[in-house]
Amino acid sequence: MPRARSSSPSPGRLRARGTGAVLASILACLGLIAGAGGALAAAEPLPSFGALSAQLGQGLVPAALADLTAHDDDPLYRIRATYAPETHALDGHLRAEYRNRSADTLTDLGLYTFANSSAFHGASLTLSHVAINGQVVTPRPLDQGADQLLDLPRPCAPGQLLVLTAAFHLVLSTSAGDNGLDEQSQDQACLYAWYPVIAGRAAGAWLLHPINDLTDPCALDMAHLLVELTVPAGMAVASGGTITSDRPSTGSGRIVTIVAPFTRDLAVVIGAQLHALTTTVGATTVSSWSVPAQSTAAQQSLAIAAKALTLFSAFGPYPYTHLTVVQTPMSQDAEGMESSSLILISSLIPKELGVDQGQVDASAQKTVDFVYNMVVSHEVAHQWFYNLVGSDPYVTPWLDESLADWSDNYYLESHAGSFPADAGWKESAMDIAKSGCLNHSAAGTVDSYQGKGQDYESVIYSRGGLMYQALRQRLGPQRFLDFLRSWVSAKRYLIADQATWRAAIIQALGPADGEAFARTWLEGTGLTLPDISSAALSAPALQPATP
Ligand SMILES: [Zn+2]
User: Fold this and answer.
1) How distant, in Å, are the alpha carbons of 28, 213, 347, 362, 366 from that of 355?
2) pLDDT tens-digit readout, 98-143
3) Between residues 130 and 546, which one has the greater pLDDT?
4) What is residue 329's predicted lDDT score, i.e. its pLDDT?
5) Cβ pair 458, 431 in contact under 8 A
6) Per-domain boundaries in the chain
7) What is the per-residue pLDDT across 13-25, written as a single tens digit (0 to 9) for each?
8) Among candidates 361, 333, 364, which has minimal Cα distance to 346?
9) Separation between Cα atoms, residue 163 and residue 359, nearest integer Å
């Protein structure tokens, strides 16, 4: 989730999109489809998953390869696309193999085409030649075209396979994108929600919710992707997943092959001036991309991302060979954004903090350091809470954001540097005290916060993060770490919901205390400011902090 920033002498923050109150008071605180790259037809013989798994396995560390075998029925996308910067557009073909893993016989298929939402400010994603199992179908657009419903030519029983094929045309916004997503600006294109995605499904229905610019688009299933992306010569490509080959195309460009196993959304940033700094954490290469003028920020982001990856791996193993960080222009309401194995960090952070490159005094540097530590660690934490453990950001926006918020404060506590170790916790407590939302329930959908970005910040992020700090204090370091590990392990590669969370809390605290904890911290019933103050304290480390 993107975070927006505030700026003041004491650490503070805004975290949601659309608040507008940046730099404020707290932190200063089928059929055959012809076209570029060739057709992807339903009639093509399907390679076995085993044949493809060797390719997909190039994106996973050795310890995670067995996970691929256990998830061979996850959706499989093959995409060929060509990016044309002169028209800020991308043309592509998609072939998605989707097995009906529900207990329902499907009569339709939900599809996300998020870029059509007005939240993306002029971007669009249009489909043509849409077919299911080779039979042409006509999509029915929903929610401004941000979702589509496809009627199946024949019902699809549990366990059966559907093959969706389509051509798509993405036009990037040249003004704002969605906080910079699906936007081409400053000679850089940020592809995010750039291809059609089959919707998540729960309780017998497709999760086709309205797009709300306070939160991420929607609940995305894990999928495996094989992508061939053609870009002009001289353009660098920073991508989620792993780039396995980069070769000249028949024209003047290059074809970049990307394998992306276990991916909820594949983000790609393309730019002529981008270059990368790299380091390694275990078997994972961490890279941080920027234009030359941003190389100081890229260096800082790289160091933080590597330390955060190390710290958070205590929650469960990070499975990918790569973690990619990209400094990219985002709106003033967003500091960062997560996607599977790639995080975006706003290249405008120093500017929005009022800091000119090269003229940073000690006080301003402290603020910049705090924001980078908070934002980069927050987005890395989403690799566990959002990515490995998915959730529905419309129905339960708190489910991943509260844990990502707790994690960034825990990172600040563990790697405090030039600011107090409890700075993050204290800032959250201040935010809650100022908001007047102490007793608001966090359990509503994101629509209940429409036009109330500050309330959303306070309840979903600040109070959500302190909820876990209260749980940490109650359970002690070892039992709390066990709680986090079992949460990640039980829902790894899946989508968690509120009922699952409640059951986990009850298991950790017992029935009576667990229910009381959920009522107090999730629903806000009886929560007091002294409760907040008590929670906003550092606690014994879950493991020795990495130097
Ligand atoms: Zn977030």
Assistant:
1) 12, 27, 12, 11, 11
2) 999 999 999 999 999 999 988 888 899 999 999 999 999 999 999 8
3) 130
4) 86
5) yes
6) 49-271
7) 334 333 333 323 3
8) 333
9) 56
Residue 151 in contact with residue 160, Cβ under 8 Å?
A: no
Left, alpha or beta for 524 (phi > 0: left; psi -120 to 50: alpha)?
left
Residue 184, H or E segment = strand 183-185
pLDDT-derived band at 340 (thresholds 50, 70, 90) equals: very high
Distance CA 364, CA 377 (A): 20
User: How many percent of the chain have pLDDT more than 90?
Assistant: 67
CA 146 vs CA 12, 169, 208, 460: distances in Å: 34, 14, 9, 25
Residue 294 Cα to ligand 1 midpoint, Å, equals 23
**Quick check: 375 and 357 in contact, CB under 8 A?**
no
Look-up of token digits 């493991």: 543
Tokens found for residue 90? 């991308």
| Alpha carbon of 492 to ligand 1 centroid (Å) | 18
pLDDT at residue number 189 = 93
Of the candidate CATH numbers 2.40.50.220, 2.60.40.1730, 2.40.128.110, 3.40.50.720, the domain formed by 49-271 belongs to: 2.60.40.1730
Q: Mapping DSSP to helix (H, G, I), strand (E, B) and coil, where does residue 24 land? A: coil
* Cα separation, 226 vs 96, whole angstroms: 10
* Distance from the alpha carbon of residue 198 to the mean position of ligand 1, in angstroms: 23
Q: Evaluate whether 202 touches 227 at the Cβ level (below 8 Å).
A: no
Q: Within 10 Å of residue 530's Cβ, how many Cβ atoms?
A: 8
**CA within 13 Å, CB half, 315:** 26
Q: Distance, CA 266 to ligand 1 centroid (Å)? A: 17
Q: What is the 55 CA–ligand 1 centroid distance (Å)?
A: 31
Q: Quote the ligand 1 centre to 477 CA distance (angstroms).
A: 24
**How far does the centroid of ligand 1 lie from the alpha carbon of residue 336, in Å?**
8
Going from the Cα of 17 to the center of ligand 1, the distance in angstroms, rounded, reads: 10
Residue 353 has pLDDT above 50, yes or no: yes
Whole-number Å distance, alpha carbon 130 to ligand 1 midpoint, is: 34
Residue 399 pLDDT exceeds 90: yes
State the pLDDT at residue 428: 94
The C-alpha atoms of residue 506 and residue 490 are separated, in whole angstroms, by: 15
Q: How far apart are CA 173 and CA 195, in angstroms?
A: 15
Q: For 112-121, 278-287, 301-310, 375-384, which range has the lowest pLDDT when averaged over its residues? A: 112-121
For residue range 431-452, what is the model confidence (pLDDT) as tens digits? 999 988 899 988 888 887 877 7
473 in helix, strand or coil? helix
Phi first, then psi, for residue 20 (nearest 5°) are 75, -15
- Residue 317, SS3 per DSSP: coil
Six-digit token string for 360:
């940073």
- Angle in degrees, 0-180, between the axes of helices 423-435 and 464-490, rounded to the nearest 10: 120
Q: Which residue has the higher pLDDT, 194 or 451?
A: 194
Chain position carrying tokens 């301003």: 364
Q: How many residues does the chain have?
A: 547
Instruction: Tell how far the Cα of 455 is from the centroid of ligand 1, in angstroms.
Output: 15
- What SS3 state is found at 229? strand
